[in-house]
Predict the structure.
Amino acid sequence: MEIKKVTDASFRKYGRIVEGIDFSGLVEALAKTPLPADVVYEPSVASLEALPVFGELQKKAYGELPIQIGYCNGNNYYLNAVEYHRSSEINVAGTDAVLLVGWQPDVEDDGTYDTAKIEAFFLPKGTAVELYATTLHYAPCNGDENGFQVAIVLPKDTNLPLEESHAGGEDARLTARNKWLIGHPEGGLPEGSPLGLKGANICIR
């Protein structure tokens, strides 16, 4: 599929490049985090949250709301699922990466989504983007054969385990705090995950 740049005008539907904040220390710290053969996600990492950029992001990007900084690292070329939050998510590229994104209003009333509407954008090392709350996304993909390391910034406690049961309609797609998921049947998700992606399980290779 075509991979555009996050500087392309078509990305404005999904997010924006974050400017005015120094991410160099965070990029350096990401290089020290694990880079497995598969994909690992840690929602909150103390060493990343101890960096000066944490305070800047909390103040400037999230209007003083409590936040968390974690990472999503590994090797991946497939869509597998999409998720969305009731808040923006900031991605900071510690390496080159590719983001597969869609638009939440394109989700059908029955909770299905056509993967043909997914778009791919190249996120170069050192670049930070804000993905809007209406942007469908999931794990990044490799920017090259060496894997990816991406810092994930979200409101505090996002993606932590739920405390109550959820069923029916959109509520059934809530799989963690502030995380609504739509999986692909071929996405390798845990048994019982909410499915609804129709079409190919997008692969960027």
Summary: Helices lie at 24-30, 46-49, 52-61. The mean pLDDT is 97.
